[in-house]
Amino acid sequence: MKVPSTVTEGHLSFSSHNLIVMYKRRNATFNTKTSALILPTIAVVCSVHCADLIPTFMADKFETSSPWSPLSWQSRPEAQKVDYPDSAATASAVASLRALPPLVTSWEIERLKSQLAEAQEGKRFLLHGGDCAERIEECTPESLSAKLKILLQMSLVLIQGAKRPVIRVGRFAGQYAKPRSSPVETREVGGTSLSLPSYFGDLYNRPEFTAAARCPDPMLMLRGYERAAATLNFIRSLSAGGFADLHHPEYWNLAFFKHASLTPQRRLQYEQMVRDIAAAMEFMEAVGEQHISDFSRVEFYTSHEGLNLLYESAQTRTVPRRDGYYNLTTHLPWIGERTRQLTGAHIEYFRGISNPVGVKIGPKCTPDELLSLANTLNPAKEKGKLVLILRLGAGKAAIVLPPLVAAIQDSAHPVLWVSDPMHGNGITAANGIKTRSFDTIAQELEEVASTLTTSAARLGGVHFELTGDDVTECVGGASGITEAHLSTNYASVCDPRLNYAQALEIAFMLASRLAAESSKRGK
Hints:
Elements: E1 6-9, E2 12-15, H1 16-26, H2 32-46, H3 50-65, H4 87-99, H5 106-120, E3 125-130, H6 141-162, E4 166-171, E5 184-189, E6 192-197, H7 211-214, H8 219-240, H9 264-288, H10 292-295, E7 301-305, H11 309-314, E8 316-317, E9 326-327, E10 332-335, H12 345-350, E11 357-361, H13 367-377, E12 386-390, H14 397-411, E13 415-419, E14 426-428, E15 434-437, H15 438-454, E16 461-465, E17 474-475, H16 500-522
Parallel strand pairs: 3-4, 3-16, 4-7, 7-10, 10-11, 11-12, 12-13, 13-16, 15-17
Antiparallel strand pairs: 1-2, 5-6, 8-9, 14-15
Helix pairs in contact: 1-2, 1-3, 2-3, 3-13, 4-8, 6-8, 6-9, 6-16, 13-14, 14-15, 15-16
């Protein structure tokens, strides 16, 4: 029988986590002996098993008493660990990474953090999206332009709906490592069953199903760095040099407006939004007496999952005139659902960096666990520091989310609630192809937004796996993709992504919701 982890006395409610924290605040010295005395007492008071309290106690102890360094994570258990077999080559690659220039700057990171703080207050909205897993070989002008184009167009739609600035963060320039459900993949090759290491992204190995390709290669970390640098250079050049001209809707592909799945009312609504965007652009040009691309510099930030801690820590350093350490591979690194163990290597690494940090939160996360994550990753309760990326699965938000929101609100931790409606909704088509349903993605997004509003919180951003190309990886949406179309252009080496039309369609759907909320607040 499941027992409660919270005890109520009068009007006060104490979780087991909070009781541990209260004890430690009053007792500067705590060790194995004192824990043996206090934990049974807390267990009895909160009606939990004593053994269940040990991870929280030890995590908090580590948080408050153990020194941190960019390499202190190496003393902790590492989930999703992939070993490079050549230790000498690994050491050489890491040493080279440490000597190379940073990919991003601390002032860019601090600027993003300040904007995320504004998003926490409802003054901005976060659009976080891009590839499931970047490919080193796909670092091309066409591919990067397509990603940038769809993110820019989506952000303009959201600005029109939300009536507030949008922070654009791309899953690029480093999204080269992916966690997997199994370390081994088995296929039939020539009538024989063959098992090889799973593909963990281009920082580790290659997707081709051969022993040579799947063998982890530390030199790929250097190739990943080089392609990330090239990606950043190209993106910065585009955003500063006229790519903003894609603001204009005449550049957009809006053919999905004509699909029968859109109701006439919805189609008219979307068409009006496009006209409003065009009118706003024309007004800005008229007032400025110059082309919008002449005075509009579009800001883009980068983000990736910090899975490969050798790669991340090699570019973690101090900078002049600032306190603390920065991960200079990206602006916004995040921790995945599979690697956020409180006593694990990834939490240990992330607790010491000054970057804003994202954490994926799945449906099994408890309020106590979430509080422990917040206390460990942001003990000073710094604004703009912590982004909680919800990947719950359709139909779960109303049950899972309210106690999580209540725990965060009671603790006064400033967080940004972001919906990732994709990762909890994977399905397998009848032909065995991994896919996702556009309708289910839209359903979870609506459920999370509604539940947050009901809980006196707000949806502060969205997180999508998407591409600017016309792939056929997710079914549904006004583009009319069915399971029969999946093999037409399924290009992802890992998870299915929204294509151009699906991404833009969901932006219009979300913008409509944000516009309705903005109208209610105005009243």
